[in-house]
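Schema walk-through. Below, the input block comes first and the output block second. Nothing else is stored per chain. Lengths vary across the set, and this one has 82 residues.
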Amino acid sequence: MIRSSYYHYVTVEEEPFPMQGLADRIATIFSKGHVNYIEDQNIISILNGKIIVNEDGVRGTGPSADRVKKIYEQFKIDLEKE
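--- output ---
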C-alpha cells in the first residue's frame, strides 16, 4: 500500500506471469508430488530441484528438462494467443 498525497493512482502495466497455471500444466506430465510451486520465490521446482522454472525459462539438463522446456514454450505461445 502506498500512502502519499503525491500519488493519485497506481496501475499494473502488465499481468504477472501465471506461474501457478504453468505448474499445474507441468503437473499433468509429472506426478503432483514432483512439481512444487514456491510462491515466495516465484519458481517451480521439479524433481526436488533438478529442474527449476521461472519467468525467464527452464534450468536443468536431460530428457525431463527438455520436456519441461517444450511445455514452457507451448504455455508462452498459449498466453500470447489469449
